[in-house]
Specification:
This protein is of the alpha+beta class and 447 residues long. The protein has helices spanning 56-69, 130-142, 177-192, 215-225, 274-281, 286-303, 345-352, 363-374, 425-442, and strands at 6-12, 31-35, 38-43, 47-51, 72-75, 85-89, 100-104, 107-112, 115-122, 169-172, 198-208, 230-234, 237-241, 244-249, 252-263, 307-312, 317-320, 324-335, 360-361, 384-389, 394-398, 402-407, 410-419. The strands form 2 sheets. Strands 1, 2, 3, 5, 8, 9, 10, 11, 12, 13, 19, 22 and 23 form a 13-stranded mixed beta sheet that branches. Strands 4, 6, 7, 14, 15, 16, 17, 18, 20 and 21 form a 10-stranded antiparallel beta sheet that branches. Strand 22 and strand 23 (410-419) form a beta hairpin. It is globular.
């Protein structure tokens, strides 16, 4: 006889001055989705689903809906992210051998608008109580890796610099810098033939850190330095993405699209405030605006069949991050019923991924060219990462500005660039280094 999936959600004492959600990032095996002081952190694992191939999103969706259909849910908080929750990470490519996954934790701590809660999830038959849930959380926290310090409070966004990782070295990944620039040049030539309009090419580097990689410290550093991004951690995939693929709350879906990048280091020596420089150089670039418009059209055209109303910024805005500026646009849609029900997060992801922001356009042509030129299985890089609950709410970013921890002393970092007619290989290579910077900094490696 199969045990019933049961969850208990209760309020948890806490306030912003405690440090918000980052204070719970104390274990290297933590599941994490956080922005500013809010989000979700998970501990342990009671079950998981894995899949590969083109149907991975829909297979995961079916598994999750069956799991929660007859779940015994006690929820006195009733906010997005309460009750049953799964964290997920999906491979970028339908041809990847990397396993996409949904993970159901044992304990979840959530923070939203200053309100804290605690959820315990189980298949066991014993009674679920608030005291038991709090005791389980204490066990996970007391067994954590607590190196480093957590920034406290909303005004404590400045994180102390990590000491340089002693003996750390960087190695090229699948392609050398010269070979990757040659791939960019080949991509530009394909674009000039008219075969495609945009192509996104990624590259990887490997960092070896003899002193060891502490995932909890990496996540806290990212959460503190990149507060406008969504910091994620799922099964060794860690990073801080500025791009929201889809956020669903009730019948409202939102996305943040980025395309067009400028390294902040390029502003050194410029007169005037840095934002003026970004608006002039990035906002005034025909190449960058063209790349951005392709990304917006890609998302809105794919989202339209699921929406009864949609709006997006008429003009992109400048998103300011510690390492780069981006051209950014927010899109909001009211979801409509499709075949009698509102589409789930994973059904939307199945329709939206991959967007032009991480693949190119047309998608099939760009995807085939990526496989030909990159010589790289991206694994979960540039794939969807995030969470979903039983009510259909969820947040799914694109796994950018991230890395995969492959061993206790080895991390593989990824970065990519949008290639259009007019792209220069040397400039695109420099852009990848700007995008590697968040992870390198969090590892204590100067860049």
């Amino acid at each position: 006889m199969t045990s019933t999936f049961r969850t208990l959600t209760v309020p948890l004492d806490g306030n912003a001055s405690d440090g918000g959600l980052p204070q719970f990032l104390v274990r290297d095996d933590v599941l994490c989705w956080t922005r500013r002081e809010a989000g979700l952190v998970g501990f342990g694992e009671i079950t998981r689903f894995t899949a590969t191939g083109p149907e991975r999103f829909l297979e995961a969706d079916i598994w999750w809906r069956h799991l929660v259909l007859e779940a015994d849910i006690t929820d006195s908080v009733e906010l997005p992210g309460t009750g049953p929750v799964a964290f997920g990470s999906f491979a970028f490519s339908k041809k990847s051998t990397h396993e996409s996954r949904l993970i159901v934790p044992e304990i979840v701590v959530g923070v939203r608008d200053g309100q804290y809660w605690l959820t315990q999830l189980t298949f066991d038959d014993g009674e679920l109580t608030e005291a038991g849930a709090r005791a389980a959380l204490d066990r996970w926290l007391s067994g954590g890796s607590t190196q480093g310090e957590v920034a406290a409070g909303a005004d404590s966004a400045v994180v102390r610099s990590l000491p340089a990782a002693p003996g750390a070295t960087l190695h090229t990944g699948s392609l050398s810098e010269e070979a990757w620039m040659a791939a960019v040049a080949a991509g530009v030539e394909e674009i000039r033939t008219g075969a495609l309009e945009k192509l996104v090419l990624a590259r990887d580097i490997v960092a070896t850190v003899p002193s060891g990689v502490n995932a909890a410290t990496v996540l806290r550093e990212l959460a503190g330095r990149y507060r406008e991004c969504w910091t994620y951690g799922v099964d060794g995939l860690v990073g801080a993405t500025p791009e929201m693929l889809i956020q669903v709350e009730g019948r409202t879906a939102q996305a943040r699209v980025l395309a067009g990048t400028l390294d902040r280091r390029d502003a050194h020596g410029e007169d005037g405030i840095p934002m003026d420089y970004a608006e002039r150089v990035l906002g005034g670039s025909e190449k960058q605006r063209h790349e951005h418009e392709i990304a917006i059209q890609s998302l809105t055209s794919q989202l339209a069949p699921f929406s009864e109303a949609m709006n997006a910024h008429d003009e992109p805005f400048i998103l300011e991050l510690p390492n780069v500026w981006h051209l950014a646009s927010d899109v909001k849609a009211e979801l409509t019923e499709v075949e009698g029900h509102v589409p789930t997060c994973l059904a939307l992801i199945n329709a939206l991924h991959p967007t032009a922001a991480v693949c190119g356009t047309p998608t099939l042509v760009a995807g085939a060219l990526i496989r030909k030129l990159e010589h790289l299985d991206r694994g979960p890089y540039a794939g969807p990462v995030g969470w979903l609950d039983a009510a259909g709410n969820g947040e799914w970013g694109i796994a950018l500005r991230g890395a995969v921890i492959e061993a206790t002393d080895r991390v593989r970092l990824y970065a990519g660039c949008g290639i259009v007619d007019g792209s220069q290989p040397e400039a695109e290579l420099a852009e990848t280094w700007a995008k590697f910077r968040p992870m390198l900094e969090s590892l204590g490696i100067s860049s």
